[in-house]
C-alpha cells in the first residue's frame, strides 16, 4: 500500500456532518463577535483613560496654580534647587503621584522640576497658550518622555499672569490601566463565548435530529432525487402543510386534477372547489383506495399523515381500468345473455324434437313460428321506438339479461328517439348504468320489473328508468350520486360507487341534470335530462308537381325499354 503524503495526513478539511458544520460555524461566529465586541470596547476605553489622565493633570495644575506660595516664590525668589517653589511643587507632586510639576515664569524659565538640574533652564515645550490665559490638555512628549499634560496660567494676587504651571502624568500608567482592564474584559468575553458555544451546541443537536445527522451534500442529493422522483413517477402527489394548504404538486397531479401551479399555498377547497376530491385531500373522508371523479377521470386516492402535522396524498388514474372493467361487465352481460339464449334454445329444441318424435308435425311448425315471432316482435318493438342503433342494441341485450335474471324489462310506449344523437356513446353509458342499477335493485323481488322511457323533446333527450325495487330513502337522494357510494358488494376486478356519479357528471357536462325520485307504486325513478343532445331534424323533401311526375315516369319507361 502506497504511503499517504504527510501534508495530506495533516490536512484538516471541513467536517461533512451537518451537526459538526453548524456547531463549528456558530462557535466561530460567537468567537468573532466576542473579539469584535472586546475590540470595540477597548478602543473607546483607551480614549477615555487618556482623557481622564489629562483632566487629572489639569486639576493638579489648577490646584498648584492657586497655591499662594507658588506665585509669591516666582515673584520674590530665584529659581534654585532648594527654593520654596521647588519644595512646594515636589510636595504636591508626591502627594498626587504626578510625573512632574513644572512652574515657570513668563520668560519660560523653570522654577521647579523633578530633575533639579533642569531648574533655571528654558522649558522644552511652548507654554504660549497657558501664558495667554488658556487652559491646555494634551498628550505630548517632553524631557521625561510621553505624558498626559495639563497647563494653566499662574496669576498673582491681582490676577495678573506671571507664569504658568505644567503638570504631567506618565503615559505608561495610563497604558497600565488599560492593560489592567483587559483581563476583566476577556473574562466577560470568555463567558459570552461559553454561553454562545452552549447555545450553538443545543441548536446543532436540534438540527442534527431534524436532518438525521446527514451531510449537506447528502441533503442536496436527496432533494435532487426527490425532485426527479416526484416529477418522474406516473402517480399524482399532493403534499399539504399542517394548516391544510397545498405546498407541493408534481406534474402528474397537475394533469390529473387539471389545476395550475397557483394552487400551491391554497386549501384544497380553494384550488379544486367543494367536492369529494377536495374532501379526500383535506382528510375529511378517511379510508384507503378512495374513489373520486375529477372531470372525466376516475381517480384512486390515498392520504398519509406526516410527522409535522401535514399529509401527503397520492392519486392514480383509474379511468382506463374503469373502462376495461365496464367492458368486462358488458362482456359478462353478453355471456350471460348468450348462456340464457343457449339454455332457452336447448329447451325449445328438446320440445321441437319431442313434437317430431310424436309425429305432431303441425304443432311443431306452429311452435317454431311462435318462437321466431317472439324474437322478431321484441327486436322490432325496440328498433321501432329507438332508431339509434347503439341504444337499441343495448336495450335488446339488457332485455335478454333481464329475462335470465327473472326481471321484466319494458320499453315504455312513450319512448320515441330518432337517430340524431350528438353523443350516442355518452347516452349508452348513462342508460347502461341506470338499467344495471335497476336490475340489481329488483333482483330477487316478486314481480320484478324495470321500465325504460326515452324520448326526444325538440333537441332535448329525456330518459326515465323506473324499477319496482325497495327505492331510495328521501335523505339519500343526493348522496347516491357521490363518488364511492354504493350499497352493493364490489366485483373482484373493480370497485363500485362511481356509476351514478359518472351519470350525473355526463349529464352536467352537457348542461343537463340527473335526479332520483319515487316511482309510482314504489321503487325508484331516475330522470336524466340532456338539453342539446340531438341535432336539428333534416328538412322534409319538397313535394313534386304532376308535371314532374309525368316526366319522371316517361324517363323510367324509356330506361326500361332500353
TrEMBL record:
Residues 546-555 have a biased composition (Polar residues). It is found in: Cell membrane. InterPro entries: HATPase_C_sf (IPR036890), HATPase_dom (IPR003594), His_kinase_dom (IPR005467), sCache_3 (IPR033463), Sensor-like_sf (IPR029151), Sig_transdc_His_kin-like_C (IPR004358), Sig_transdc_His_kin_SpoOB (IPR016120), SPOB_a (IPR039506). GO terms for cellular component: plasma membrane. Keywords: ATP-binding, Cell membrane, Kinase, Membrane, Nucleotide-binding, Phosphoprotein, Transferase, Transmembrane, Transmembrane helix, Two-component regulatory system. Pfam families: HATPase_c, sCache_3_2, SPOB_a. It comes from the Bacteria. Its EC number is 2.7.13.3. The chain crosses the membrane at residues 21-45, 178-203. Its main location: membrane. Residues 423-534 form the Histidine kinase domain. One of its GO terms (molecular function) is ATP binding. Residues 537-562 are annotated as: Disordered. It is a multi-pass membrane protein. PANTHER family: SENSOR HISTIDINE KINASE DCUS, TWO-COMPONENT HISTIDINE KINASE. This is histidine kinase.
